[in-house]
Design brief:
The protein has 185 residues and is an all-alpha fold. Helix content is 76%, strand content 0%. Helix 1 (3-22) crosses helix 7 (97-104). It folds into two domains: 1-48, Homeodomain-like (Arc Repressor Mutant, subunit A); 58-183. The chain contains ten helices and no strands. The chain has helices at residues 3-22, 30-37, 41-47, 51-72, 74-78, 83-95, 97-104, 112-128, 137-160, 167-183.
Length: 185
């Protein structure tokens, strides 16, 4: 991507995050964002249709990265070793901690975590169908939904708490619960 475009979209994103720290997403206007980013409205509309399109595109980047991380860790996951994948996803989220925190805040997008959960469940189901052959798809979906929603709950609280506990101290108990549970299937 062209450096100028990258710098512009980052400025717009930074402005959005700053505004989301102050007020609800639905109360933010394009004018608010462009004024804070010191970018004209026309430039905003070169990149996005509106604020919701902007948020959706930023979230899509996160979702695509999660898919990539899960796909890359495919062989690890089939051996019920989630720790490397969980660490990579959380490290990725931590790199953009401020944005993630605003997305999951009361001012953010109430549907973001549902999107993350849905994609993680769907991707995990594709991976596990082969190793859990004796169970039907609905049973596997219950298992994956339980695991993913539990993980999302733990890490949502971790982010809301300012990520003060070292990530490995948060992940290791999750890994233990998940791997022991799946190994007993």
């Amino acid at each position: 991507m062209d450096r100028r475009i990258s710098k512009t979209t980052q400025s717009l994103k930074d402005a959005l995050v700053t505004l989301m720290e102050e007020k609800e997403l639905r109360k933010i206007t394009v004018s608010d964002i462009t004024k804070l980013a010191n970018i004209n409205r026309g430039t905003f509309y070169l990149h996005y249709l509106d604020i919701y399109d902007m948020v959706e595109k930023l979230e899509d980047e996160i979702i695509d990265k999660i898919k990539q991380i899960i796909d890359t860790g495919n062989s690890v996951v089939t051996n019920y070793l989630y720790l490397p994948i969980l660490v990579k996803i959380i490290e990725y989220f931590y790199q953009d901690k401020r944005f993630i925190q605003t997305l999951i805040s009361p001012n953010g997008d109430p549907f973001f975590l549902n999107r993350v959960q849905d994609i993680m469940v769907d991707h995990s189901m594709k991976i596990y169908r082969g190793s859990l052959k004796k169970y039907d798809a609905s049973y596997i979906k219950v298992i994956m939904t339980f695991i993913v929603s539990g993980g999302i709950g733990v890490f949502t609280e971790w982010f809301k708490g300012g990520c003060k506990t070292p990530v490995h101290e948060v992940i290791i108990p999750c890994e233990t619960i998940i791997s022991k549970g799946l190994n007993n299937l």
